[in-house]
Design goal:
By secondary structure, the chain is of the alpha+beta class. It has 2 domains: 205 residues, Cytochrome Bc1 Complex, Chain A, domain 1 (2-Layer Sandwich); 183 residues, Cytochrome Bc1 Complex, Chain A, domain 1 (2-Layer Sandwich), CATH 3.30.830.10. It is 46% helix and 19% strand. The protein contains 16 helices and 11 strands. The protein has a 6-stranded mixed beta sheet, with helices on both faces. The protein has a 5-stranded mixed beta sheet with strand order 7-11-8-10-9, with helices on both faces. Helix 10 crosses helix 16 and helix 12 packs across helix 16. The longest helix is centred in the first third of the chain and has 20 residues. It is globular and about 65 Å long. The termini are far apart. The N terminus is likely disordered. Keywords: Hydrolase, Metalloprotease, Protease, Signal, Zinc. Belongs to the peptidase M16 family. This is Peptidase M16. One of its GO terms (biological process) is proteolysis. It comes from Mangrovimonas yunxiaonensis.
C-alpha cells in the first residue's frame, strides 16, 4: 500500500512540475525585421537581455574559416559610444555578467543584470549591432586572443582535435567539414575590409532575434526596444544555398595522431539528419539508452563486466542541417581498438533487430521528462531556449511542447533509426592515436 501511495504522489508531483514548467512569452517583429521575444517572470529581480544572430561557422568563406567565432570576440572590443576595453567594466560595475558563444549555426550574446538595469542591457546590445568599431587594433588584439584559446582548448588539449577530425572526414561538401574555431592561417591572411564585410552581411536586425526575459515591465520594455533597435536599418536578406552531402555508401577509414595523448581512442561516426527531424529525437533516446550512466548498456558491458574499456559513449550531436551520431571508446590496457569497436557494433545490431525492453523504455521516458522539467530552471536558460527554438527550429513553442515529441517516440522508432542510420557501410571509423617520435 505504501508503495502505491508513493507512486501516486510521485506521479502527481511530476505532473504538477510539468504544468508549472510552461513558459509564457510574447513575440513580434520590428519594422526592420528583428524578431523580439519577451518572457516576464517577476519571481527574482534579474533580467537577461540576449541577441542570437543566425550566423555560424557554416556561413564562412572556405578560405576564411574562423570568422564567426572571431566575431564573438571582436564585438566586445567597443562601439562608437563604448570605449575600447570598457564593455566588461560597464557590465560588472552595474552588477551584471555577460558572455557569448558560437556554433556552426549561430552566434549568441547575452547579459544578466539586476532588473533595474534592463535598459542598459538593451542599449549595449543595440550598440553592438548599430555602432561596432571594427579597426585594425581590435582585429590584431583578438587575433592573439583566439590563438591563445586555440592553443589552450585544442592544440594542447588531450583529444582536442577529435571532433574536428570527425567532421573533416564525415563531411566532404557541407561547411560543417571545418572546425568552428577555424584556421589561424585564414585569420592571419584576412584584411580589415573582409571583417567589415562579414559584419555588414550578417550582423543585421533581420538576421537576429532579441530576447528579454525576467523581471520586466512589458510595455516599458517594448518602448525601450523600439527606441534602441527600431531605428537600426534593415540589412540585405541573408540567403543560403549550402551544398548537400552525397550519402555514404561504404565505410570511411581514417587515422589521426595526437601528441597530447597516451591512450588511443576509436570512434565510429554516422551522418544523421537535422535536429528538426523527428528521427533526431529518437537518436537522442538511443544514445541515452546505450551510454547514459553506469547502468547503460555500453558502460555496463564494456567497463563493468568485460573490463575492456576505460570509457565508452554514444552521443547524438544534432545541428541545423545535419547531425553526427558517434560511438566512442577508450580501451583498457592492451585491448585492441578493433575489439572495442566490434563489441559496440554488437550492441547496435541488437538494437536494430530487437526492441528495447519496456522497462528500459520507461526509464528513458522518465529521464527525458526530468530533463524537460530542469531545462528551463533559470531565466538565463529560458532566454537561450526561446532564441534557439525560434531561430534554428522555426518554432518558439517547442520550449513548452518539445517533450511531446519525445513522449511520442516508440520502441519501434528507436529500432528503426538504428536500422536506418547506424550501418557499417554508412560510417566513418577514426582511429585516434598517440603520436610517436617518428611521426
Amino acid at each position: 500500500m505504501k508503495k502505491n501511495i508513493f507512486f501516486l504522489s510521485s506521479l502527481l508531483f511530476g505532473n504538477f512540475a510539468l504544468m508549472a514548467q510552461e513558459v509564457a512569452y510574447e513575440e513580434y517583429d520590428l519594422d526592420n525585421g528583428m524578431h523580439v521575444i519577451l518572457h516576464q517572470d517577476n519571481s527574482a529581480p534579474v533580467v537577461t537581455t540576449s541577441v542570437m544572430y543566425h550566423v555560424g561557422a557554416k556561413d564562412e568563406n572556405p578560405e576564411r574559416t574562423g570568422f564567426a567565432h572571431f566575431f564573438e570576440h571582436l564585438l566586445f572590443e567597443g562601439t562608437e559610444n563604448i570605449a575600447r576595453g570598457e564593455w566588461f567594466n560597464i557590465v560588472t560595475s552595474n552588477g551584471g555578467s555577460n558572455n557569448a558563444n558560437t556554433t556552426d549555426d549561430r552566434t549568441y550574446y547575452y547579459e544578466v543584470f539586476p532588473s533595474n538595469s534592463v535598459e542598459l542591457g538593451l542599449w549595449m546590445e543595440s550598440e553592438r549591432l548599430l555602432h561596432p568599431v571594427i579597426n585594425q587594433i581590435g582585429v590584431d588584439t583578438q587575433n592573439e586572443v583566439v590563438k591563445e584559446e586555440k592553443r589552450l582548448r585544442v592544440d594542447n588539449q588531450p583529444y582536442g582535435n577529435l571532433l574536428a577530425e570527425v567532421k573533416k572526414n564525415l563531411f566532404k561538401k557541407h561547411p560543417y567539414r571545418w572546425a568552428t574555431i577555424g584556421s589561424l592561417e585564414h585569420l592571419d591572411a584576412a584584411i580589415l575590409e573582409e571583417f567589415k564585410a562579414f559584419n555588414k552581411k550578417f550582423y543585421v536586425p533581420n538576421n537576429a532575434v532579441l530576447v528579454v526575459a525576467g523581471d520586466i515591465d512589458v510595455p516599458a520594455v517594448k518602448k525601450m526596444i523600439e527606441n534602441y533597435f527600431g531605428p537600426i536599418p534593415r540589412g540585405e536578406d541573408v540567403t543560403r544555398n549550402l551544398p548537400q552531402e552525397t550519402p555514404i555508401s561504404q565505410q570511411i577509414n581514417a587515422k589521426y595522431h595526437d601528441p597530447n595523448i597516451q591512450i588511443p581512442a576509436i570512434i565510429a561516426a554516422y551522418r544523421t539528419p537535422s535536429f528538426k527531424a523527428r528521427d533526431a529525437y529518437a537518436l537522442d533516446m538511443l544514445s541515452s539508452y546505450l551510454s547514459s550512466g553506469k547502468s547503460s548498456v555500453l558502460y555496463k558491458k564494456l567497463v563493468d563486466e568485460q573490463k575492456q574499456a576505460l570509457q565508452v559513449q554514444a552521443v547524438n550531436i544534432s545541428q541545423e542541417d545535419y547531425g553526427i551520431y558517434a560511438l566512442f571508446g577508450l580501451p583498457l590496457g592492451d585491448v585492441p581498438l578493433t575489439d572495442l569497436l566490434s563489441e559496440m557494433d554488437e550492441e547496435i545490431v541488437k538494437v536494430q533487430n530487437e526492441l528495447i525492453s519496456e522497462k528500459d523504455y520507461q526509464k528513458l521516458q522518465n529521464k527525458f521528462e526530468n530533463q524537460f522539467v530542469n531545462a528551463n530552471s533559470s531565466i538565463e536558460g529560458i532566454a537561450n531556449s526561446l532564441a534557439r527554438y525560434y531561430m534554428l527550429y522555426g518554432d518558439t513553442a517547442l520550449i513548452n511542447n518539445e517533450i511531446d515529441i519525445y513522449r511520442s517516440i516508440t520502441r519501434e522508432d528507436i529500432r528503426n533509426v538504428a536500422k536506418k542510420y547506424l550501418n557499417t557501410n554508412q560510417r566513418l571509423v577514426l582511429e585516434y592515436l598517440p603520436k610517436t617520435d617518428d611521426q
